[in-house]
Amino acid sequence: MLFLGDISYEKLREKTVLLRAGLNLPLGANGRVIDDFRLKKALPTIRYLAENCKKLVIIAHIGRNRDISLKPVIDVLNEHISHYDNIEVYENLRQDPREYSDKESDRDEYAKELIQRSGADLFVQDAFSVCHRNHASITSIPKFLQSCAGFLIEKELLELNKALNPLRPSIFILGGAKFATKEPLIRKFLKLYDKIFIGGAIANEFFESRGYEIGHSLTHKSVIPHDILYNENILLPEFVSVVYEDYEPPVEVKPKDILPEMKIVDVTLPVDLFKNEYASVLWNGPLGYYEAGFIRGTDTLLRMLHGLRRRDPDACIITGGGDTLATISAERRNIFTHISSGGGAMLTYLEKGNLPGLLALQIQ
């Protein structure tokens, strides 16, 4: 795979560059950006290209709906790049359904139009967060234009490869939902990591598979194989927070004591979860129903990780994912040695060791 740093300044100065950036930022009810984390991750590549190429054209998407405009993001981006006079930013890629069409011919057609419109003679892929998608701006453009990976992707691969080769002892903390989609990842990480702690709605599925009552708790009714369900290296919460109604104060109970009228909304981390001084920690997924404000379990984890960081400044602590990021305040982000810009992309890379968007760059 060719990286942006492999291209000489002399060659870059001659080029019009088409950059696929990851600018899918969360917007508030007022339509304004509420977290510019991904934008800041994109800036090193954007600034480098603006300062060293002839012209830079940036393409990106936002949201899932065709009617969402990238303008709020562009307004924030302009606060950082307005002094450059060689940058153009196109509107939300997903306003054209060919970007995500199931038909390769549609995606290829759209890719060719983007290349022709921009006049680009170099494509830089830097949107790691969507490199697991088979979209026009991810897998089609490299078919028709010299391509390379930007600084963000290079950084992501460097750091996530550390997660795949953890220092020992190590622990993988997995929240979120849907055991069925996470099973291959869990199996792989049982071989790589010393312990796996399960929280979030996935823990509900473990409780249910062990025959516990889970009441109105979120579950995807997965059948968890015995070798995972009772694996001695998989840790489950010893206590959970439950409510009778969504907005009642939660109470703490043991998983085996849940009643049919209860709903699990959070987990309690074992006080000795970090009794081992873990040298590597990988975390993905909220541990509770954070959208409704149940963040005690996740907050406890962050305090534990902060303590680990103080005791061992060299510990490798990695996290990622949009939902996970939403639970980490800006002042706590320095706890981590790396926060991935991708959620699904991060998990897919950790499971499979590659992504469609990266493979597309490798065929050059």
Spell out the key features of this protein:
364 residues; alpha/beta; Rossmann fold; 2 domains; five-stranded parallel sheet; 13 helices; 37% helix
Q: How would you describe what is shown here?
A:
This protein is 37% helix and 16% strand. Helix 2 links the parallel strand 1 and strand 2. The radius of gyration is 22 Å and the shape is elongated. The longest helix is centred in the N-terminal third of the chain and has 16 residues, at 37-52. The chain is built from 13 helices and 14 strands. The chain has two domains: 4-149, Rossmann fold (3-Layer(aba) Sandwich), CATH 3.40.50.1260; 158-352, Phosphoglycerate kinase, N-terminal domain (Rossmann fold). It has helices spanning 9-13, 37-52, 71-81, 104-118, 136-144, 151-164, 179-192, 200-209, 226-229, 296-311, 322-326, 344-352, 356-362, and strands spanning 16-20, 55-59, 87-89, 122-125, 147-149, 170-174, 195-198, 234-235, 239-243, 251-253, 263-268, 280-284, 316-320, 338-340. It has a six-stranded parallel sheet with strand order 8-7-6-12-13-14. The model has no long low-confidence stretch (mean pLDDT 95). Helix 2 (37-52) crosses helix 3 and helix 4 packs across helix 5. The protein is α/β, with parallel strands linked by helices and 364 residues long.
